[in-house]
Amino acid sequence: MAYVFFNPNPKGKRVGDCAVRAVSKAIGKDWTDTYIELCSEGLIFRDMPNSNYVWGMFLKKNGFEEKIIPSVCPQCTTVKEFAKKHKRGTYVLACQNHVVCVVDGDYYDSFDSGDETVLYYYEKEI
Q1: Number of structural domains, the chain?
Q2: Radius of gyration of the chain (CA)
Q3: Which domain holds residue 69?
Q4: Among 41, 38, 14, 11, which residue's Cα sits nearest to residue 24?
Q5: Do the Cβ atoms of 96 and 113 come closer than 8 Å?
Q6: What's the rounded Cα separation, in Å, for the pair 98 and 100?
Q7: 3-class SS of residue 78
Q8: CA–CA separation, 41 vs 24, rounded Å?
């Protein structure tokens, strides 16, 4: 249960594409294919591929279920705490201004986002 560096962006960029990176890890596809699929989904909804609605709908279409957790502290949960409690499964976590993927208790990101507060998440049924 730890942070794992993960940045599939072909140019190594780390800003503005966190949803693409997280979804890429969650669905097991490379960054480019994921970006194209999210752009197609965005076109359907006339919205940007990294909009919460677009990547959320994309995950739902790919077998994920949306779940909400308390986001008001002191009941709030950080990415690090979430990962420790979820040792099996694949999750995409929505934070205030960030998206991160948790797989089997490890959180994958281009930086250590463990202290970010989780607002809601998507879970892939095992």
Answers
A1: 1
A2: 13
A3: 3-124
A4: 38
A5: no
A6: 7
A7: strand
A8: 14
